[in-house]
Amino acid sequence: MNTQPEILSFVKALADADRLRIVGLLSLGSKRAAEIAEALGMHPSDVNRHLEQLTGSGVVSESGGVYDLNEKAIESLARSQFEGRRSVYVPEEDREQDVRKVLKTYLNADGTIRQIPQMGNKLLVILNFIVDAFAFDANYTEKEVNAILRRFHVDTAALRRHLVDYGLMARESDGSRYWRIN
To answer: Is a pLDDT exceeding 50 seen at residue 53?
Structure first.
């Protein structure tokens, strides 16, 4: 089913500040058009015009002159837009099963880290994945290390510290030079 026209209609319906105010008010409970106009200080004809667009797009439903936010339709539209589209990281088949499971759990589809695991084996798996971005025969400044690590996660300081603590990289005591060990 192609939901593009539905999503386009939905977005257009919510692309107006007054309609968003109406939706916000209806999220608190059912209201008649006159109640909406009074609560929002709007002219009744403007409210009716906005309600027409909101009901036409399925955001709002009307029954007996009472308007409700159509939460089920909104949820259904949202689900259909993202159904089956969540891409995940797929590790290489040559890795061990438990390593592949950790990588799939903690990495986004693009190989960035979704969440840095706490200390332990899971963190070590992630660090071994990251350290492959560094060459064995190269020296790196802290700035260069941060630039490489930023490709994986914004918390470069934690990753840098973990790489050194777990013995995957070494550094000068003043932090001026880093290199890969394992």
So the answer is: yes
